[in-house]
């Protein structure tokens, strides 16, 4: 894709702070640096989001996540945790439409980063939970 910023980074047309590269992925520092070491792992093959992955590509890309995560942990022993985030589509906060995985080191509760999971358990009966599970299961089996 010619106008994709991540494709241009992969092809060395735009500079980046590379932390890892092999034949399938390219990992580099996110320029926002939400926390020190915030890294993006991108497939070299242009796919817009998780919905475009073929099983082989998904396996190859996601298999590299622990390698980069361990590198972050070794590079920053003061790191206390790590968020791994993959946003898909605009509503889910995807802003660059070349699939990418954020690895965000966590150093303490005062990090400039947060995630909120609402608890809507009371809104779903056991029956409605079963219906939801079955609806998804039917699609997984196809």
Automatic annotation (TrEMBL):
<feature type="active site" description="Tele-AMP-histidine intermediate">
    <location>
        <position position="100"/>
    </location>
</feature>
<dbReference type="InterPro" id="IPR019808">
    <property type="entry name" value="Histidine_triad_CS"/>
</dbReference>
<dbReference type="InterPro" id="IPR011146">
    <property type="entry name" value="HIT-like"/>
</dbReference>
<feature type="domain" description="HIT">
    <location>
        <begin position="5"/>
        <end position="115"/>
    </location>
</feature>
<dbReference type="InterPro" id="IPR039384">
    <property type="entry name" value="HINT"/>
</dbReference>
<protein>
    <submittedName>
        <fullName>Histidine triad protein</fullName>
    </submittedName>
</protein>
<dbReference type="InterPro" id="IPR036265">
    <property type="entry name" value="HIT-like_sf"/>
</dbReference>
<dbReference type="GO" id="GO:0009117">
    <property type="term" value="P:nucleotide metabolic process"/>
</dbReference>
<dbReference type="GO" id="GO:0003824">
    <property type="term" value="F:catalytic activity"/>
</dbReference>
<dbReference type="Pfam" id="PF01230">
    <property type="entry name" value="HIT"/>
</dbReference>
<dbReference type="InterPro" id="IPR001310">
    <property type="entry name" value="Histidine_triad_HIT"/>
</dbReference>
<feature type="short sequence motif" description="Histidine triad motif">
    <location>
        <begin position="98"/>
        <end position="102"/>
    </location>
</feature>
């Amino acid at each position: 894709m010619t106008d994709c910023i991540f494709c241009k980074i992969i092809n060395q047309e735009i500079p980046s702070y590379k932390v890892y590269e092999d034949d399938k992925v390219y990992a580099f520092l996110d320029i926002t640096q939400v926390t020190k070491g915030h890294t993006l792992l991108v497939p070299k093959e242009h796919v817009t989001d998780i919905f475009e992955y073929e099983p082989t590509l998904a396996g190859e890309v996601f298999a590299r996540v622990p390698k980069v995560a361990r590198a972050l942990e070794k590079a920053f022993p003061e790191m206390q945790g790590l968020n791994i985030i993959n946003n898909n589509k605009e509503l889910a906060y995807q802003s660059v439409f070349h699939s990418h995985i954020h690895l965000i080191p966590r150093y303490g509760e005062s990090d400039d980063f947060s995630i909120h999971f609402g608890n809507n358990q009371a809104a779903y009966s056991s029956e409605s939970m079963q219906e939801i599970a079955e609806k998804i299961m039917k699609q997984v089996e196809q």
